[in-house]
Amino acid sequence: xxxxxxxxxxxxxxxxxxxxxxxxxxxxxxxxxxxxxxxxxxxxxxxxxxxxxxxxxxxxxxxxxxxxxxxxxxxxxxxxxxxxxxxxxxxxxxxxxxxxxxxxxxxxxxxxxxxxxxxxxxxxxxxxxxxxxxxxxxxxxxxxxxxxxxxxxxxxxxxxxxxxxxxxxxxxxxxxxxxx
Length: 180
Ligand code: CTP
Ligand code: MG
Ligand code: K
What we know:
6 helices; two-stranded antiparallel ribbon; binds magnesium ion; binds cytidine-5'-triphosphate; binds potassium ion
C-alpha cells in the first residue's frame, strides 16, 4: 500500500527529477540570457545555458519513454499502480522542470543572489512546481489522473530529500560546484 503509493509518486516525477542532473553534466556554452542584465543584475546568470536546458529536456523525455517500455516488467514484480507517460505529459514534466529552475534563477537574481547561491525551499521545489504547471497545461487530464492528493503529498516530502542527497553526491563526485 505505502510502497505502491511512494513508487507511483516517484515514478510519475522521474522525468522531472532527471533533467536538472542532466543539465549539470551537459551545462556550459552560451547562457540563455546572453549576458543581459536588469537593474544591473544578470537576467538569469551563467548557470542557465541553452545546452543544459536542451539536454535536460531531451533526457527527461527519453527517460519517460524508457519507463513506458520497462513498466510491464516492473509492474509484474512490484504490484504498483505506475503511470504510463503520454508524449505531451513527458514534455510537460521535463521541460517544465527546466523552466521552473530557470524561473527560480530569475527570482534569485532579482533578490541579488549570485549564481550558485542557495535559497532553501526554492532550490528544492522550483522544478516540481514548473513540471506540474507545464504538465497541467500540456496534458491536463493525464496530470489530474496521475497526481492524486496522496501522491502530491509524497512528492512534496520526498523531493527535497532526494534533491539534497543527489546534489551532495554530485558535489562529492566533483560534478557540481556547490553541494546544493
Ligand atoms: N545548468 C545549465 N542549464 C540549465 C540548468 C543548469 O547549463 N538550464 C548547469 C549549469 O552549468 C549550472 C549547473 O547546471 O551551473 C547547476 O545548476 P543549478 O544549480 O541550477 O545552477 P547554478 O549554477 O546554481 O545557478 P543558479 O544560482 O542560477 O541556480
Ligand atoms: Mg545551484
Ligand atoms: K537550481
